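Researcher: Going back to the complex we discussed earlier. I've cleaned up the inputs and rechecked each line, so this should be the final set. Can you rerun the prediction on the complete assembly and write out the structure?
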Amino acid sequence: MSRRPLLREFPPTTWYFRQPRYLRYMSREITSILIAAYCVLLVFGLHSLAAGPAAWEAFLLTLKSPASIVFQLLVLIAAVYHAATWFNATQKAMPLQIGEYFVPGAMISGAHYVAWALLSFAILFLAGVI
Amino acid sequence: MSNSPPRSHPPLAAPPEGAAASLGRPGGSSERTVTLEVLRYDPDTDSEARFQRYEVVCQEEWVVLDALNKVKADIDPTLNYRWSCHMAVCGSCGMMINGEPKLSCHAFLRNYEGVIRIEPLANFPIERDLVVAPDDFMDKLKRVKPYLIPKQEKPISEGEYKQTPAQLMKYRQYSMCINCMLCYAACPQYGLTPSFIGPAALTLAHRYNQDSRDGGRKERQEVAATHEGVWECTFVGACSEVCPAHVDPASALQQMKITSSIDWIVEHLIPGGKP
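Model: Rerun complete. Updated structure for the full complex:
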């Protein structure tokens, strides 16, 4: 009996269509593109701020355009989705053992959601929004 | 490799009297004809793999492995596949069932409709039919030194290396791996980058690193804390979803990333620091 194992090619660009779980993973990863784009927007904002009041006002006006609002809404959805997947993953990355038992994963992820809510509240409060 | 002579059927013992009724089937166990579409490859004659269909009369309570055993016993004795325990313990009968890595002894026919497509585990070379070549996995398993490396050897006369229940629980989950390789078949990173040490081997490294009796973490880190090790993992999480032993390799690998990061910080950012 000869040994001649058959190698199978792994599709380098279309593999994530193979299973729904791969698509879920890619959707999580792809949110980083929108978040990166928003970081670029913030850099432009800083640049406008440094350039003087007129440039800053023009930047704020651009942010209020319909296209900009749609973009920011998409970024917000992406950021919330990414954060949720991240918090859900914390229970895997940081299991907490007390004696012979492990703290339920939902408590670890839940604590992150609570911290997120409190920090968001504090930032909105400091910004004068609420 | 299952190339023994065909054996008599059925592979499952008859259920005890009344069992069918208790399952809500007043007529007893029912039969149905199942169509299996099995990927075949003969290294002596084939240059490509091909699908072959079998119509198999099965009992409703059978698993896919039973159907394959029926094929081998009554229809086509040339079909090759691995199996042993028939109870999800040995880890031999892993295969792709409708595109999902599964133990065929754990895949109940009642959960499938229409044609059931059966292929060898993804991401491994096909040895013959449903039998894959596990050489790469076995090599990687050896590389992570999956055994106790005591901090300090002591003579047998000094007794056992003792451990508390809490110390046992720290790694117990990760010691349940049955080396079935389903996690490798599910992992796209392993498919894309075959040099990746992979979920099961790294999880086993984590299992020994977490063991209070072990002192071999530094040796394992030479393999585990590299680009081919945990840093190749992008946390798809498929390994944990398909694991039949609920080992949760994704959890082990993320924990290893954290400890590796702490090692790096200690070594590079703290003067005189040693991980």
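Model: Worth noting: The first helix of chain B runs from residue 19 to 22.
Researcher: Good, that matches what I expected from the previous run.
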